[in-house]
Amino acid sequence: MIQRISPNQVNFVPRRYITDNILIAQELMHKFRTSKGKKGFIAWKVDLFKAYGRLNWHFIKNMLEKVPLAWDPPRNGDFKLNVDGMRKIVTSDIGVGGVIRNSIGEWIDFAVVVTLIMNPETAGTHPLAGLLYGRWDLMKKISTCAIQHVY
What we know:
The structure is a single chain. By secondary structure, the chain is α+β, with helices and mostly antiparallel strands. It has helices at 18-34, 57-65, 110-118, 129-140; strands at 79-87, 94-102. The chain folds into two domains: 10-65, no CATH class; 79-140, no CATH class. The protein is built from four helices and two strands. It is extended and about 60 Å long. 3% of the residues are buried.
């Protein structure tokens, strides 16, 4: 498999997301447009920490201020769930994905949350238990639906 998949292919790198690359590319292009150096010479300092699972809320807020959207980071101790979905018209298949971040911008590993919720001893103690139980209730109304952790 390693001969067929490049280590640069983000979809196959654990804990890497395509959106991280998009945000880095946007940051690079912004830096490129605003740089005032000699033509033909270029040096960029890129915060590679942003490429792995975490993004600084200040950075995200600055990026989103350039787009006409209303958005606020979650309050301290809260979590935010962003979802996106699609439907194939021909087959009527539906897919939904979500990203959960905490108040300091860390991605929440949904596999860990599902594991905690499935354990009767920890089921009600995790801060995301209410969110997951709400999804379960919604999923019960749909005949063929399941939660999966996909990387």
